[in-house]
Design goal:
The structure holds two protein chains of two kinds.
Chain A (H helix, E strand, L loop, with lengths): L17 H9 L5 H10 L3 H19 L34 H37 L1 H16 L2 H12 L4 H11 L2 H15 L2 H8 L4 H9 L4 H24 L10 H10 L2 H4 L2 H29 L1 H5 L1
Chain B lengths: L1 E12 L5 E13 L4 E5 L6 H8 L7 E6 L2 E2 L5 H10 E4 L14 H11 L5 H14 L4 H4 L9 H14 L4 E5 L7 H16 L3 E6 L2 H7 L2 E6 L2 E7 H6 L4 H8 L8 H15 L4 H13 L13 E5 L2 E4 L14
Parallel strand pairs in B: 3-8, 3-9, 6-7, 7-8
Antiparallel strand pairs in B: 1-2, 1-4, 4-5, 9-10, 10-12, 11-12
Helix pairs in contact in B: 4-6
Classes of the chains: A mainly alpha, B alpha/beta.
The complex binds adenosine-5'-triphosphate and magnesium ion.
Chain lengths: 312, 328
């Protein structure tokens, strides 16, 4: 992995400084692909900026609580205090520390987003890949299932589940959200798989005696990595928003704080009219920044995964 | 070695399979060791479909495929894996034969993982270089490149090299030279001839008659999914019988003869064969020999009769629904 650039391979790196680019083109070994992808990822400004913002929020949510003096729900200080002094983001109508709430909210927001997104992604992608690749009867059955779940008003079902089963923990909420948000993923993945399936390299992999699972994993999915990541970003954002809506109607987790809950409490207690911008701007901005950064990262990753885009 | 017996393929198209497309009709042919059999037909005649059925990439709708005396029409995953050790294919479009996001090396790596997990890296590297040399490629120019950085001809030869890494007995070559320029084309054709002399059987799919002539021992002429004529290359090319074959051959330039000669010969032949159908004449002759009732048999009319030794011809009608020119 030093600057031992071989004399061949002028194609990709011709326009760049030889010293810097020696590493990726030198790694001819199979398996060098992962390292190379990482190498390009770490040089892509969009990936870097997006990743930095998301990681910063994640870190704040993870290690922030250790440095807090007040619990999120404590009536800790003067009501409606603007940012400054003891309370970096001010206080609510009840004198609760907005910063403490924000940090705690970040945690559950990430948890809902990641868990809900992951559940929906796993179900949706599995169904989409299998339906698209196998075709025939399996496809028709899975398609039927997808359409049934698609027309079920997911939000209403979530309300019923939450209300009657009384599920109030964040992971449970995430799980239920995930179970009802996969159909569009399955459809999108299915149609992409369908178009990839007819390409000759899939047939060539079959001629190499490789099984269905391996073909999906090694030939089909890699062509959709950036797309799958995009899907995850959307699911992530969607889960957060659904969770926030559930929180608003009082069906959110009772034992936890979330960014959605913060915004909804702010609205409920007329923070808008009272001019308490520090109550609703941080959670709103937080959600926007997290989802937006993931989106920017996705655009960058598109360039990383697609060698044709890399060169230009 | 490979025998197709009355192979059929019906594509279900339209929603709920309402309309069917009969892409391959009752195709019977065989390929022996050390022999090149050309499958010739215009675009859409079902050549690739036959190739894919032989390679078990498509299920056949009827008929049987036999390889080395074993019925291989239906194979499970394991049996298919073993089958692919002996039977490999190279496809029409080299650009879509490689996963665009990976370096071309990966295609070979997949093969190695699957069939040669115990071969050491250096050993494999040696074999790879040998296979690349066989298709006159320089490993240094090729390995470590992405598919879009290579030419169609280079990719096509890489695919042949891939097939050579396995110790195959049958190669299905689907229009493998249509993407190549004239000089590489000859290289690849010579390579095929050399492989043939090593005992490999090759099913050579093409729409180019002059190339079919150059490499093949026998030819199969396909029209709209039906075999209209087949036989030893020289016999079919020198004495084409079926109207479709005659049309096809009339448009091939000959180096050794003038157009006038060729046209005169063809005019003479079509005059002799006009309004006739050798297939039904032969059937009728057989029927007379066997007695009245036998002549009504074989209503399907997709079979072939042996006109002269090793030269088979089918009913002279063109499309499946057309009437036979002899009115039979
Ligand atoms: N997956 C499919 N579904 C439905 N019809 C198909 C499918 N694949 C091929 N066909 C049809 O089957 C017929 C034969 O196709 P095939 O690809 O075998 O032709 P071909 O002889 O290889 O032509 P070419 O020289 O253009 O490659 C065509 O009419 C085509 O439209
Ligand atoms: Mg074809």
């Amino acid at each position: 992995m030093t600057a031992t650039q071989p004399t061949t391979g002028p194609g990709t790196e011709a326009t760049e400084q030889p010293g810097v680019t020696g590493a990726p083109s030198g790694s001819r070994k199979p398996g060098g692909d992962v390292r190379e992808t990482l190498y390009f990822a770490l040089r892509n400004p969009k990936v870097l900026v997006g990743g930095f913002v998301v990681l910063a929020f994640l870190l704040l949510g993870l290690i922030g609580p250790a440095f807090l003096r007040y619990a999120p729900m404590d009536y800790a200080g003067p009501p409606m205090a603007p940012p400054g002094g003891d309370f970096p983001l001010g206080t609510t109508t009840f004198g609760q520390d907005v910063f403490a709430q924000f940090v705690a909210g970040l945690r559950s927001t990430f948890l809902v987003g990641v868990l809900g997104g992951a559940v929906a992604a796993v179900i949706g992608m599995t169904i989409g890949f299998v339906a698209g690749y196998r075709g025939g009867l399996i496809d028709e059955l899975l398609n039927m299932l997808t359409n049934v779940v698609l027309v079920i008003p997911g939000f209403v079902v979530l309300i019923i589940i939450n209300a009657y089963l009384g599920v109030r923990s964040v992971p449970m909420q995430a799980l239920y959200i995930g179970i009802f948000s996969w159909p569009w993923v399955a459809r999108a993945v299915r149609s992409q798989t369908l178009s990839l399936r007819s390409r000759d390299f899939i047939d060539l992999a079959r001629l190499s005696g490789v099984g269905v699972g391996t073909i999906l994993r090694r030939e089909v999915a890699p062509n959709m990595y950036s797309y799958l990541f995009m899907t995850f970003v959307l699911l992530f954002g969607g889960s957060i928003l659904t969770a926030a809506s559930l929180d608003f109607i009082g069906l959110g987790p009772t034992n936890a704080m979330s960014l959605g809950l913060m915004m909804n409490q702010a609205v409920q207690w007329s923070a808008l009219h009272l001019g308490l911008w520090w109550w609703f701007v941080p959670p709103g901005l937080g959600i926007t920044l997290i989802v937006g950064s993931l989106y920017i990262m996705n655009v960058g990753l598109d360039e990383v995964f697609n060698p044709k885009l890399r060169e230009t | 070695m490979l025998t197709l017996d009355r192979l059929d393929k019906v594509y279900r198209t339209g929603t709920f399979g309402t309309s069917d497309l009969h892409a391959v009709r009752q195709v019977t042919l065989d390929v022996q060791r050390g022999e090149v059999v050309s499958l010739i037909g215009e675009s859409g005649s079902g050549k690739s479909t036959i190739g894919k059925m032989v390679l078990h990439l498509l299920d056949s709708s009827g008929g049987t495929i036999t390889f080395d005396g074993r019925d291989v029409t239906h194979l499970g995953f394991r049996a298919r894996r073993e089958y692919y050790r002996k039977v490999q294919g190279v496809f029409q479009d080299p650009f879509s034969s490689f996963n665009p996001i990976f370096k071309v090396d990966r295609t070979f790596e997949t093969l190695r993982r699957s069939y040669f997990p115990r071969v050491s890296s250096s050993d494999w590297r040696g074999r790879l270089e040998e296979a690349l040399a066989a298709v006159s490629l320089e490993p240094g120019d090729i390995l470590g490149k992405f598919p879009h950085q290579l030419s169609g001809g280079q990719l096509q030869r890489l695919l042949i090299a891939r097939a050579l890494l396995l110790d195959i007995e049958l190669l299905v070559a689907d229009e493998i030279i249509s993407m190549l320029d004239a000089s590489t084309r000859i290289d690849v054709l010579n390579l095929l001839v050399e492989l043939k002399s090593r005992g490999l059987g090759i099913l050579f799919v093409t729409h180019d008659l002059s190339l079919g002539n150059y490499v093949s021992d026998r030819v199969v002429i396909l029209y709209k999914g039906r075999v209209v004529e087949r036989g030893v290359t020289a016999a079919v090319f020198d004495d084409p019988l079926h109207p479709y074959t005659r049309d096809l051959l009339a448009s091939v330039p000959h180096l050794d003869r003038t157009w006038e000669d060729v046209e005169a010969e063809e005019a003479e032949r079509s005059a002799a064969l006009a309004g006739r159908c050798l297939y039904h004449e032969a059937l009728a002759a057989q029927g007379r020999a066997l007695g009245e009732e036998a002549s009504a048999a074989d209503g399907d009319d997709v079979g072939l009769v042996e006109h002269s030794p090793g030269h088979f011809v089918g009913c002279f009608r063109l499309a499946a629904g057309d009437p036979c020119p002899a009115g039979a």
